[in-house]
Amino acid sequence: MKDIDNIQLELLQATVNRVYKRVPFYKRQMDELDITPDDIKTLDDIRKLPFTTRDAFSKNYPYDLFAVPLRDIVRIHSLRGIDGTPVVIGYTRQDVGHRVEISKRFLTSCNVTRDDIVQICLDTGMSIAAHELKEGAEAIGALVIPPDPISLNAQIRIMIDFKTTTLISTPSYASLMLSCLKRELSSAAAISLKRIIVVGEAIDTRIRARWMEEFSVDTRAGYGISEVMGQGMAYECEAMNGLHLASDYFIAEIIDPETNQPLGHGEEGELAVTTLTNRANPLIRFKTGDVTRIIRGECPCGNPHVRIAPIQKRVDDIISIRGVKLSARTISWFLNEQLGSAPKFCLSISKDDPIERLELKIAISSEFFSGSLPELHHWLHRLEDAFQEKIGIQCAIIPTEERAIEEFHNNQVICH
Amino acid sequence: MLTIQNLYAQYGAITVLKNCSLHVDEGEIVTLIGANGAGKTTLLSTISGLIRPSKGNILFKGKDIVGLSPSKIVSCGITQVPEGREIFGPFTVRENLEIGAYLRHRKERDKTGIKRDMDYVFALFPRLKERMNQPAGLLSGGEQQMLAIARAFMGRPRLLLLDEPSLGLAPMLVNIILDTIKELNKEGLTILLVEQNARKALNVAHRGYVLETGRIVLHGASAELREDPEVKRAYLGKDYKDISERGQ
């Protein structure tokens, strides 16, 4: 048995022992399948364990998934679930340390050092990732400019004046910043940027090549899920051929999303992860919804951790816009919460370069429109502000005739 | 160096160890922490062949040692210092040490090596040198523990299993014993340590495993386990300054 397999098995057994004893949800799930911790004798025995879906978080809200007493929790993050139900993630002091360590390792692999000036530009919907990356960069000793809700122009000014060497952002926001910079500057040499670290979405290789050509910057990608381990769960090395999994912190499986059966090495399927070190919120076979495959063979960089292909799609209708995950269910929840009922809608996302724009068409009725246009404008502005606050991303809301929505895209999310 | 996989051990109908997997790398000090009856001593005795496991593998340097007699396991390079020392009371300190080196006498006739190691343990424990011609039964508890460790070292084991070395000793002697464990580790000896005094054990060990009713429930670096609220509450003594009582 290889060393890493050995350690993974020890940690898996300890995790299963803990959750079986301390989390009634997992005990029930295992009892239903007639599984006990004694059945986990090899790493392959993970396949005997039940899956955990995102619903488990809302069904066990707020604390029923915790495997430690509340007094051992030192931090709690509350996220919006896809259908609006809240999700709570608790961290013990050890969990905080592990998350800092995993972010630090990710950034170190991107060659960030204590000499770097790291500017983080992430939407509020990615605030947990932003916070953890900030802590990781600080642990390296770099100078960090954390995300602030300031305008694009102000971010660009900071990049120029503070001589940012490392930008951490989503590919789309980084694209927007660079295209504005290009317009503003006579020469790319006027900025000190050495690298862009992208998270939240997969990056197009053509964009990466363009950044290199126009600004001579390296690009590295990272992957993380806040509910599991945060950014750095997988990260690119200098070979930039797939993302190395942090297999000392979790076990990854690729499964068929329909049958839940494990897929062969190299086959594309849904990523399911089991945490090995999480103390507060251990997760057993958590179905991420992200589609990827294991990349065969050793990496030229020498890192022994296996690699996955960049995440390009999902198994469900959830889409990620600048790291913010949403689906038709999210929009229904939002409209219900704001208006008391959900009118028919169509959310369209234009992927026009350089940044995606969200446009939510909602069927307007006499219930919302009294006949006064100024009032309607005011009402729409308030709704847009609420969207930004609740969903974490800007969206234009356009009143439309119900018939027009029904004719085309009833309650759908369309990307074009 | 030592890899244990899915180990079960029982006394009659009672299963004491349940599906335990752990490893000790060469040059490490690894500690086992757990309440009384958690299975710590059983685990050591299963490794040294005194108890036969009901299931599971124990690999030492890649070779399965399950089913070997205790003496064969000693000759493989594993020596246990049992709880309660078990020194030979009527024999002198020097004779006890010579018994520890018995296999080297018989197999290797390594007289120079034995002499060198005898000098080394006397330098390590000057108290033993002072009393080398006295019957071991006349030594104090702390001195007997020193002798038990020194006797085990004389066999030049690769892996030392230490069971409760600080049991019944005065705090100052406990520190001397634990410092010696660190010293022996620096000499290249790999150590698996079972210790009631979890705080002190975690101060000398590199890594630790927490056993709870025969199952391993935690595994981590010592520094991490030392700060773990659960470990603190259960094994390090409750300290209300460290553990706040936020509502549950």
Fold and architecture overview:
The complex is a heterodimer of chains A (416) and B (248). Chain A is of the alpha/beta class. Chain A is built from eleven helices and 21 strands. Chain A has helices spanning 3-22, 24-32, 55-59, 93-109, 127-140, 152-161, 171-184, 205-215, 328-339, 373-391, 402-407; strands spanning 73-80, 86-92, 117-121, 143-145, 166-169, 195-198, 218-223, 234-236, 243-245, 250-255, 269-275, 286-292, 294-295, 307-308, 313-314, 319-321, 324-326, 345-350, 357-363, 396-400, 412-415. Chain A has a nine-stranded mixed sheet with strand order 4-3-5-6-7-8-9-14-13, with helices on both faces. In chain A, helix 1 (3-22) crosses helix 2 (24-32) and helix 4 (93-109) crosses helix 5 (127-140). Chain A starts with a helix and ends with a strand. The mean pLDDT of chain A is 89. Chain B has 248 residues and is an alpha/beta fold. Chain B has two domains: 1-77 and 159-248, P-loop containing nucleotide triphosphate hydrolases (Rossmann fold, 3-Layer(aba) Sandwich); 87-156, no CATH class. Helix content of chain B is 40%, strand content 25%. Chain B has eleven helices and ten strands. Chain B has helices spanning 40-47, 70-76, 93-100, 102-108, 111-124, 126-130, 141-154, 171-186, 198-204, 222-226, 229-235; strands spanning 2-11, 14-24, 29-34, 55-60, 63-64, 78-81, 159-163, 190-194, 207-212, 215-221. In chain B, a hairpin with a 2-residue loop joins strand 4 (55-60) and strand 5. Chains A and B meet through helix 1 and helix 4 of A and strand 1, strand 2 and strand 10 of B.
**What gap, in angstroms, lies between the N and C termini of chain A?**
48 Å
CATH C-level category of the largest domain in chain A = Alpha Beta
| Main β sheet profile of chain B | 6 strands, mixed
| Major sheet: arrangement of strands of chain A | 4-3-5-6-7-8-9-14-13
Summarize the structure.
The complex is a heterodimer of chains A (416) and B (248). Chain A is α/β, with parallel strands linked by helices. Chain A is 33% helix and 23% strand.
